[in-house]
């Protein structure tokens, strides 16, 4: 069987800057961000950072209790985004449950709220009294994939991706490969993350969080900026529906873009420190998969977390691949780092830029760190018609991903 072209026919998301393509496009163009102070974290002793990007979606009462008993917030966010994407693609519920539709979905962990409730009781009181039987189902590593499959009745292949900050990107990449090589007719793919102080504490212990702007949420994060002081964590979910170009065209489906390349690899060197060679390697893999040269890429949506070591390494890896001042920005400056969701959310941000013909800036980027490579950093909204976009994400464990989206003309 010849490889098939793979297109995006549905999307859904919830993010700190909006829950629709129109809303996030407006935010990216007007500078409206989703970073806020977290006074509720004041009770956590020695926690330095007090900023986060929080989704404003209302989930309470949206779904029947019987259908969400095994869901924590992370799965609920994933369900919201996936419900939107499936409806957007015009997929009949019977088709979704036919076995012809598969699922690839990830998050960094399961629900941290559920984990806090379960472990806090068990490990401090050494008792099962008050613990709920479904706590594990909410906090298990593949909770999003399992719960989505159950909620929508998906019976095709299921691919849980749990690779920290590349979870969403790998889910889309593996879904793309499932369609490309005829292993599944349709794939629902994405990633999700819920906000919790445990995630902030994880990066705080590594001195990787932003703590100098706690009283000024507008001023952080600052990817690639000389005055950055670390990342801000965020939450949200993003879901895409993928199918072959021929199938989409035959049924008259809307097509947002074509996925023409995906690459993923591992540094195999260090659990937290990034590798320029590994990052560049993933970009080369996606370009090779797309069968295009780097000169074809109109814009790069960077991982850009606003950490010193990450920004510098990523910028030089990018420059080594492109050998030119390719336009680049980090949309995490609007949302914070949504961890397992970022690859999916940022792919949707890229689709918004394609549709509405602009490049989003890196918010708060005022003075590029001179240690970063010489790239075309987008400092303010730029009118453009990006037809080919590369979106990159990198994770602990040396996991690297690169995805290439192309506008159909």
Structure description:
Strand 15 (388-395) and strand 16 (399-406) form a beta hairpin. This protein starts with 5 loop residues before the first strand and ends with a strand. The chain is built from 14 helices and 16 strands. Helix 1 (21-30) crosses helix 14. The protein has a single domain, classed as Thiolase/Chalcone synthase (Peroxisomal Thiolase, Chain A, domain 1), CATH 3.40.47. An eleven-stranded mixed beta sheet has the order 5-4-6-8-1-9-16-15-10-11-13, with helices on both faces. A three-stranded mixed beta sheet has the order 2-3-7, with no helix packed on it. It is α/β, with parallel strands linked by helices and 409 residues long. It has helices at 21-30, 65-68, 73-89, 93-96, 112-125, 135-139, 143-152, 167-180, 197-204, 245-250, 276-290, 308-322, 332-335, 342-356, and strands at 6-14, 35-37, 51-53, 101-106, 158-161, 186-193, 233-234, 236-244, 257-266, 299-301, 327-329, 358-359, 376-377, 382-383, 388-395, 399-406.
- For CATH, the homologous superfamily is named as Thiolase/Chalcone synthase
Q: What structural class is derived from the secondary structure elements?
A: alpha/beta
Query: With helices defined by DSSP (H or I, 4 residues minimum), what is the helix count?
Result: 14
What is the arithmetic mean of pLDDT? 97
């Amino acid at each position: 069987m010849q490889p098939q072209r793979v297109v995006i026919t549905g999307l859904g998301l919830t993010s700190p800057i909006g829950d629709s393509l129109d809303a996030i496009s407006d935010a990216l163009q007007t500078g409206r961000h989703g970073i806020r102070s977290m006074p509720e974290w004041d009770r956590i002793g020695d926690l330095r950072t007090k900023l986060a990007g929080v989704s404003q979606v209302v989930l309470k009462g949206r779904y029947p209790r019987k259908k969400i008993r095994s869901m924590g917030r992370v799965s609920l966010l994933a369900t919201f985004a996936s419900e939107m994407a499936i409806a957007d693609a015009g997929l009949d519920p019977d088709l979704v449950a036919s076995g012809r539709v598969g699922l690839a979905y990830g998050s960094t962990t399961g629900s941290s709220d559920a984990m806090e409730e379960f472990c806090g009781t068990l490990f401090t009181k050494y008792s099962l009294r008050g613990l709920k039987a479904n706590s594990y189902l909410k906090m298990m590593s593949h909770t999003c994939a399992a719960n989505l499959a159950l909620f929508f009745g998906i019976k095709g292949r299921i691919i849980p991706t749990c690779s920290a900050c590349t979870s969403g990107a790998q889910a889309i990449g593996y879904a793309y490969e499932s369609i490309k090589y005829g292993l599944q007719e349709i794939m629902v793919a994405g990633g999700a993350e819920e906000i919790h102080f445990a995630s902030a504490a994880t990066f705080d212990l590594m001195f990787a969080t932003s703590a100098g702007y706690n009283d000024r949420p507008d001023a952080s994060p600052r990817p690639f900026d000389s005055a950055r002081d670390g990342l801000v964590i965020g939450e949200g979910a993003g879901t895409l529906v993928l199918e072959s170009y021929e199938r989409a065209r035959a049924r008259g489906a809307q097509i947002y873009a074509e996925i023409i390349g995906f690459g993923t690899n591992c540094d195999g060197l260090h659990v937290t420190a990034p590798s320029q060679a590994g990052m560049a390697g993933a970009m080369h893999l996606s370009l090779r998969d797309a069968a295009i040269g780097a000169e074809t890429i109109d814009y790069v949506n960077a991982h850009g977390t606003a950490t010193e070591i990450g920004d510098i390494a990523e910028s030089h890896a990018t420059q080594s691949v492109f050998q030119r001042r390719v336009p680049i920005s980090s949309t995490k400056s609007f949302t914070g780092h949504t961890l397992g969701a970022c690859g999916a959310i940022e792919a949707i941000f890229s689709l918004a830029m394609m549709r509405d013909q602009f490049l989003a800036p890196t918010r708060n980027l005022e003075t590029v760190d001179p240690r970063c490579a010489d790239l075309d950093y987008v400092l303010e909204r730029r009118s453009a018609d990006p037809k080919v976009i590369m979106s990159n994400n990198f994770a602990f464990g040396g996991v690297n991903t690169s995805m290439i989206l192309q506008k159909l003309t």
